Amino acid sequence: MKINKTGLLSGLVVAGSLFASISSASADTIKVGIANFGEHPQLNAAIAGFKDAMAENGFVEGTDVTYSESHTNFDASLVPQMITKLQAENPKLIYTVTTPVSQIAKQILAGSDIPIVFSAVTDPVAAKLVPSWDAGDTNMTGASDLQDIAAVLEFTRKLLPDAKRLAIPYNPGEANDVALLEKVKELAPAAGFSVVSVGIDNVNDILQRITSVAGKADVIYTPASNLIQPAIAAVSAAARQIGVPIVNSDSSAVANGTVPASFSVDYGQVGLNAGKIAAEILKGKSPADIPPSAPTYETHAPMISKSAAAAFGIEIPASFDDCGCIVE
């Protein structure tokens, strides 16, 4: 085959110019790594909110910043590999979503110059990510998803006025879950509840552990746990077997009729809070000078599923008639 050398050289020149253009464009953008635990509506909302806040603060995706996203499908054993891979890409910052991912990232990136911004972490102090609620760590700070537990209990009491015993399924191996359980135990008596702790450290034990509260609990509150929420359908099925209704920490399971009710944090707002913090760091502020943020009461919202409530034998009180929070 005859090769046209002139055409070939012209092509190389064009290709070279294109490569130079791409390299120049890449040089003008910064890279941010996103380390997620797995695909879930709450966590996805936290990532979307993060990007929105970054854009609002001058870091527009594709123009000012490029994102390298990864998740482990909730497999904690793969998190170190994910963090190491993101670190090798030399990002200006890594955004970590959930407590397990954030804890492992802090260990692996210790001593590096890559700042970390976390979100979807219930208690960053208990998880030893930051020294206090008043300051960030040397290279880490972020946005908590800590719920207003007193408000959750108030909502539960209003929905189920006769309930007295509140069961809390939790993972004993996750700092978030343990911290939340202790907070519930502290505040429940004032709301007229006693607390039944239900430790679950394996999804295969959900049916047995949830059904074990038959006759011991009047309502189950399912927290924003990395073990419980991905398996909320199984938790709900087990709870329905024993006729104990659920108040969930995530509204998506109410919207699709899996559980009767929720009083939940807006994870899009949690992500927005994290994105604002990341933008501050990228503009030169030290993570140590930025305290972790927490949701306000206004970032919580109730939701009740009429069909799921009926399936669990709940009669929705008239006090909710005008709440605008009831879905079919």
TrEMBL record:
Entry keyword Nucleotidyltransferase: no
Domain of life assignment: Bacteria
Gene3D superfamilies noted in UniProt: 3.40.50.2300
Pfam families: ABC_sub_bind
Record's keyword terms, sorted: Signal
Signal peptide: 1-27
Protein name from the UniProt record: ABC transporter
Species whose genome carries this gene: Thalassospira lohafexi
